[in-house]
Automatic annotation (TrEMBL):
Coiled coil segments of this chain: none
Alphabetically ordered keywords of this record: Hydrolase, Membrane, Protease, Transmembrane, Transmembrane helix
Subcellular location(s) per record: Cell membrane
Domain Peptidase S26, chain residue ranges per copy: 15-91
Protein name from the UniProt record: Mitochondrial inner membrane protease subunit 2
Domain of life according to the entry: Bacteria
Entry keyword Hydrolase: yes
Amino acid sequence: MTRALRTATALGAGVLCAALGLLRSRLALFRVTGSSMAPAVADGDRLLVRRTARVRHGDAVVFRDPFPLGDGDEALARLVKRVSALPGDPVPPEVRGVVGAPVGGRVPPGSLVVRGDAVRTQDSRHFGHVAESALLGVVLTRPARAARRRVRGPRK
């Protein structure tokens, strides 16, 4: 191998490592545990998440659980919910009592209100505002569920 080829290979490998590092610093893959976002997101789904603090109404977000269980399971320390109110928005009526906001109260700066898609879910109606600093990112996509389809036995 010539010196020029070795140099080009080393340079290419360095560029590839830098690109992967940049990509990893901006994206993350999370596995869902639970059904609070069903039917949009199911237990066991994997979510591609963009690490950012910029969110919009309706975005599905991943954030650190404000009250994690102490069993050491890292998957349970993160929650996936949908943003229903941003800083400056009116506090939704079903959350007012939890956060002590008066009628017409606003979501404070640095806070979000989140809701699960499922009927039975723990969300801002139970634990109040979520600090923007607890936000891990916004869900970009969920890989196809094809691998989870039930395999049927042979026809008789």
